[in-house]
Please model this.
Amino acid sequence: MSSKPAEEFNYDLMSIVVHDLKAPIASVKGFIDMLEHLGPLNERQLQFVERAMKGLERMEQLVADLLDLSRLDSGAAIEMKPCNLAQLIYETVEMYEATAAEHNITIDVYIPSLPPINANTPLLQRAISNLIGNAIKYNRDGGIVAIQARKEADFVMIDVKDTGHGIAPEDIDHIFERFFRAKRPDKKQISGTGLGLAIAAAVIERHGGQIWAESTLDEGSIFHFTLPCMAEIETDNRNQSSQSDTHRPHREAGGEVSDSVDDDLQESDESSDSDSRYDEV
Ligand SMILES: Nc1ncnc2c1ncn2[C@@H]1O[C@H](COP(=O)(O)OP(=O)(O)OP(=O)(O)O)[C@@H](O)[C@H]1O
Ligand SMILES: [Mg+2]
Model:
């Protein structure tokens, strides 16, 4: 009888659970959608429909998160390809422009010419997305998210900075732990499961990089991560990567969307955080 390592077994199990949950979630969503077409709903009914939908969206996100984590834990091979990091960051920022605009948050991006990196694009986008999502979610209305990337020795360093309420010194060592959520001094409830940073850390580490955070209460936080450069193909792709030598300030919501990122990890398809998750509950 063949015995699999526990992590591999967990991943197999999670894949089955996620697969089996997808159909009922889709069907409940369909029925909730249909409720709105039955006739005009009163305000209270509409509120319930909205809450049920948000709950389902969170459930979908949670199962996707757990699947990604168990996949990363399992050590299963992850397909890596040369990736234009600047383009990936801009595409991810675009996903958040509407949410940021709702809260009057400006997203500033500064990315000079970067060498290509070797990445699993959907997973890396998930990590970047979780950091940008947090920088908006934990920001204050009218705040700023500043994203910078630069080449250091043989790696690329990316910073995601916000002007939010910051993270208490006693919490900062725990934020990358699974399910950890810091208590907010203003007692405001912000929805989330505490998996976003754990996923980001697992993804960055799987790419041979490092991730860490610094924060000052009431001023904001800055998350840094590094990714090794693909030194050997840097010269060949110089023309391509230099196209991203720009400083792009925040663009209005609804701006044009550039080519979509590679789709070499099916499970991460729905990885983009749904806007509804940023609503305070
Ligand atoms: N930019 C930030 N500013 C302030 N606190 C932050 C920031 N990013 C993360 N945190 C704190 O770290 C905790 C963990 O973040 P993480 O992204 O893992 O989970 P989450 O945002 O709570 O939920 P989700 O799984 O939906 O991402 C958050 O609950 C929050 O307390
Ligand atoms: Mg988060």
Observations:
- The helical segments are 6-35, 43-74, 85-102, 121-137, 169-172, 196-206, 231-234, 238-242.
- Confidence is low (pLDDT under 50) at residues 232-281.
